Amino acid sequence: MELSRSTRLGRRAFSALAGTTVLGLALGGSVSGAALPAAGAPGPVPTGPPPGPPGADGRRHRVALDRYSLLVDGRRLALWSGELHPFRLPSPSLWRDVLQKMRAYGHNAVSVRLAWNQHSPAPGRYDFTGVRDLALFLRTAAECGLYVVLHPGPYIGADVDAGGLPGWLTTAGGRARTTDPAYLRHADEWLGRVNAIAARHQFTRGTGTVLLYRADTPERAGLDHLRERLRADGIEVPLLHAGSPPLWEEPERTRDAAEARRAHFDRLGRGSTLHNVRTAFGGTSWGWLPAPSAPSPTYDPTAAIDEARRPTDKLAPLHQLGHLLCHVPDFTRMTEAPAVRAADPRLRVRHLANPDTGAHAYVLRNDSAADITSKLPMGGTDVEVTVPARDAKLLATGLHLGAGRRLGYATVQPMLSLSVGKLDIAAFVGRAGEMAHLALDCPDEPWPTRLDEEAAWTLDHGRLHVMVPLREDRLTRVRVRSGETDRTLLLLFADDAASLRLWPYETPSGRVLVRGPELLREAALDGAVIRLTGDTVEERELEVWAPPGITDVTWNGEPVQSGLGRALSLMTVWPLAGVPDLVLPALDGWRRRAENFEARPDYGDEGWTVADRRTSHGTTPVPDGQPVLFADDYGFHYGDVWYRGRLTGASGLESVSLSYRTGAHGLLMAWLDGEPLGTHRVDRPGGKKDGAGTWTATARFPLPRSLRAALRGPRGEDDPPVLSVLVRRTQHDQDAYRSARGLASARFEGASPDVRWRIMGAAAPDPVRGPLNTGGLYGERHGWHLPGYDDGAWEQVSLATAPDEDRRQGVTWYRTTFRLDVPPEVDASVGLVLDGAPDRDVRVQVFLNGWNMGEYVGGRGGAPHPFVLPNGILRTRAAPNTLALAVLSDGDTPPGPGPVRLELLGSAAGGVPVKPVASPARRRG
User: Fold this and answer.
1) Which of 146, 70, 144 is nearest to 108 (CA)?
2) 3 state SS of 844
3) How far apart are CA 899 and CA 660, in angstroms?
4) R_g over Cα of the chain
5) Strand runs (DSSP E) across 798-920, as ranges?
6) Which has fewest Cβ within 10 Å: 167, 195, 226, 322?
7) Where is this region: Disordered (predicted)?
8) If phi over 0 gives left and psi between -120 and 50 gives alpha, with beta otherwise, what is residue 405?
9) CB contact at 8 A, 123 and 165
10) 422 with 488: CB under 8 angstroms?
């Protein structure tokens, strides 16, 4: 990551810098909000209860940092942030859905990047409405009880076109990410617009939950300028940058649960308390948003919450660790402890201790290809532990579990420890098939009770040993009492699957713990009633631990019959209902029309831009003797670009060579006087990758004999042959945003014609969908992708039976409409699958209700990957949806996408209310 790389300060250097006193992190070096203890105040802040969930509560708050953790109002906070890009989920209603899921899965903060190019179609023009409503997102995060770490760039990376820099910046003066005044003028204007919104939502002011501010500061002088900019804009929350003392921990993407454990436990083992998961939610790189580094519409297929808003296999360890950091305060102040070695040297061990509480943590890592079972000294004895191959474990000793009881040791990971009324609850997690062994130090003789048949226990010299075989998706409970206290300890043991149905929640009236449903969104105490909202997929029993006096339960607004169980919980008599089956409609009624009018010699291009520049704003040299043909120099930054060149003196022409530059999956199509010359792709022979995100290629097209003969015939001066060229795609590399895109040069053999070029790209940016929604195809410029376009005169076709012999080079459009009838109490995630595209060498641009959902690149074989159709853009409540496909084919491949169908990606009973996203139709006339 550009900005989020951890600083390279060693522990000793960092300790010397931070000392044992509180460090202010505000922009001028002072503490945000009211003052905390000044430098020289005796001793660090001790370990204690964490601050409660954040919100816009109207009170001033203090934020600072010492060498161990963030301090919020004098309390230690371990930050467990997850990254979410709002611009990758273009349905504001669903922001709440994902934010609620992140909170439920253990996050207490959301890290947010803002893409400048999404908000600014032109210099001085900014849009923070609709799917770009930053204020709405920040309000929603506060309502969901999440802190916000805001990263507005100006450069954000994130596999976004040009790293988030707007397309128009390619032709503006100044060099980006420097202190060049010409660049800073634009960057300051962008940050000023963001900061005007962010300042109103700062946690320090009590008007929101923006807790930290990250920024793009590759140079020291730029950092000084940024501080002045932020101070002038009223930003007072701490600033994180590449050289700041806070160790912002953000490992690279991890592929599976084991790799996620290794990555995050490693950082925990170094004592870090500022963590970020990249990415918590992947989302869709819709439209022309993606950079060449990640050209697929699916941004991160390894995200913990996938593009369809479903939990993935990687989520369990993140859920467990997040709740551990949020509910076990010992981990907010861990220091390196004397080295501990396992008997088997292949097992790497990091040992940490909390000087306040006496708790110890052990991070065990196994990088070998085999499971390792070894003795490890913990809690005053040698304990046998097993770490699976290429995996990691987090173990602890000395944790306070209530009423004087302490954890002697455990061979499974602690997940949470909380008190509900007179009940202390501690949950431990491991992998299914593992034998959990927990030793509990009790000041008085314990009275254990086995509540589930799997558990066994023994008592040895005042230490209670509990053994539980962990079964798949099974929770095992053990109750521990004694005669010297009225507090009861409840031990919970879960495997990964069962842990994902444990939901702690903090209400203003106390903590609750819920077990059973696939998701708990909210819990509220109302007199004797606890009101729960959430999601179910399967039929699930519901178990609730709530404060005294709670006797009744409602689920999603409906009362459920319950009674008191042996675990001192409220248990429902009947299971919660699962989600009903849904049947999706078949996609039929297709209509088709070919375009490529630009290839016709008599096409009227009088309104096109004349391409006659001799110097370029970009970094790519202009070929000798050629005009500038780069798309950005003429204001066309996204999508496809058309060129038309009139060739004077082309008699004898034998071949045309066209050099072009694109991002990933680029291609070029050419016609001469309407006759196809061929199609070329940058990833085929003749193409090469030039740098991180630019592909260059030269397409040589010999002229067919008929064309050569036609060029030798008599032609008037007013009727020169026309060379038409379509280039896709113009995405910009993150780190070389001024590298040219589009056609670079044209060379001819057999003749030396004089060429007069014109160029056309995307029309004016869509005021609702934004500047990255459409490109320069004829159909896009004339609204063929929009609802309301009259396609009644188009040819009727069936995609399942369309004849393969109907082949042509160029662009063919397909349109249909369909309706869904999803019950209002069901959240259904629907995808579009192009079953025929993997075997067809075509490019398919998918438009739903006018929104560009991204490009499918066919001809690669394998199972087709669905396009996720976000609810809000997708009308799910008996309303019409318009689906349009723009298919680019090379003339050797059938022009259609093949069979296309809707697929149910996931559904749940529950969800959040979804408002339709504005999808303007084509204007009549």
Assistant:
1) 146
2) strand
3) 33
4) 31
5) 809-821, 826-834, 842-848, 851-857, 867-869, 877-890, 900-909
6) 195
7) 38-59
8) beta
9) no
10) yes
